[in-house]
Sequence to fold (91 residues):
Amino acid sequence: MGRKSSELSIGCKENIITLVQKRISYGDISRMLDISKSTVFSVWKKFRTQRDVENRLRSGRRKSIDVRSARKLTRQVRGDRKLVLSDVTLK
Fold:
């Protein structure tokens, strides 16, 4: 199994779609764009099934505190750098 690289740009994916629609072979496209044939095929397959080439948002770990609480915490710590954790949680 090869190394993972960064995602293809949307422009590159759209380029693949137009070349496949012009009936150019996967091998020729992969040589022209310097990407693997399997990548070309997977982009085309995704386009055929979903009619979209956008990069999806990934689920990740949720933030433990919301933006408002983070601002409040930052404000408290900047106000008094020697605050103890128990004092911060009480406020």
Summary: The chain has a mean pLDDT of 86. Residues 9 and 91 are 47 Å apart (CA to CA).
